[in-house]
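As described in the Methods, two query proteins were run sequentially through the folding procedure within a single session, without resetting any intermediate state between them. The first query and its resulting structure tokens are shown here.
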Amino acid sequence: MATFERAKVKRILGRRKGLSKAVLELAGKETPAINYDDLTGEIKPGDEVIVNTTAVELSLGSGGFHIVHWNLTRDSLSIESPGHIMKLRYTPLQFNCLSVEEKASGFKEKLDGFSDLDGMPVIVGTLHSQLAPAAAVAKKLAGGKARVAHLMTDRAALALSLSDTVAELKKKKIVDATITIGQAFGGDYEAVNIYSGLAAAKAICQADVTIVTMGIGVVGTETYLGFSGIEQGEIVNAVHVLKGRPIAIPRISFKDPRPRHQVVSEQTLASLGLAALVSCDVPVPQMDKDKLRRVLEKLSDVGITTRHRVKIVADDGTLEALEEFGLEPTTMGRSVVEEPEFFRAAGAAGYLAAQMLENKE
């Protein structure tokens, strides 16, 4: 059951397109919250608001803040959009947006003329934290010339504006364009599904490389199939169908305390060993011999080394790229120093993408 409480806005911590971060007073205590300005309108100090407190009460790490549900200081709210595609359909927060498939967007003819991805490298991750290293390496190794698009799926957070990572990557011009698909929203472009989203990346964004991940807040369970990231295999299939070059980031960890995520996550094994029906490139960064042996054994146990093109990347350049761009990503609270193999696997995907672009020229 969802829980809602009345609170008062004490101060605004910051704003960016579509999102405000605030401190609320709730039950006599100050607490952090976010407000989606495009859904509930802007808030200001002194406003009385109703907030969804469910995530905080469940002690969720990635959702440990309240979310403004309605601003009681206004009697009505109207946020206009020219589009007719509904997102958050049949919920109290359903809204219309202008999707690239609609004639009014001005992009329909480009999509109608789209034939295929023409070998475009498409990096497919399972966690939002893989986005920054993959984008940074691809951008750096391509000499800053490659256009990098980020396509965010709807398997986790639906609002792209929630991501500090995307905001930073856009500001530093590491990511040139964003696309949100399905029920996800807030990208530079909206698309109905993964196929039209990839087509938009190529035909509208003119991307040289596209990186597909979900947003913040991946869902995982202690079952082999019950996790959000199994979409990785499905997306690999879609990229292949559209004649792109799928590159799947393996989730590698030697610090995660949960057995199912150690060495190579079971989620990678299920996504690439079961859900992916076609071959893709799977980059593995060079590492300590014993660690590398354990990684390859895990991949081999479910047939990934024979079904896919597992490539050892000796000099992925991840740490240098992150330092050059001033990026400090974390995964499950762990930094690049604590979990280098995780981030280097994502960076190695960026390395392969840049290599593909170079070979194509």
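Immediately afterward, the second query was submitted; its sequence and tokens are:
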Amino acid sequence: MNKNIEKKECIFCSKKISIQNYRIHKEKCFLNPEREILYCPVCNKVLTSKTTTCSRKCRYKYFGPGNKNGINGIDTEPSYRKVCFSYHPHYCIICNENKILAVHHFDENTENNNPENLIPLCLTHHAYIHSKYKKLIINKIELFILKYFKYMWE
């Protein structure tokens, strides 16, 4: 018989679980009295599933914009994406893609969110810059940075 089809009832919550996943579910079942009790880091409610927070609202406060370390959700500084697109065009500087964009930290230091360090790239060219294909686009990126500095000095 196929393990994915055959189901067994959890002794704690009575949920029907495939035999393949039964052991893991039983260990982590929120009604299992032996499992480690986890609490939402935002509101301190007991977590009833395998999540970091108890709700969308708490998740946004915990992981929200500007919240680097997940403490109380206060947006103390703008995200690097906001900084990048406030100073630079909203398109990939290599191919002009404008729908799905990434922001590359030129010096590879993710703490350095100065506009001259942030480069708008599409996902493909962002992957290039972190691979052996970097040499194919690095000249255009360096030219972009030079133009940015020239514009700032004028």
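Strands lie at 7-9, 16-18, 101-105, 118-122. We note this only descriptively and draw no conclusion about the first query from it.
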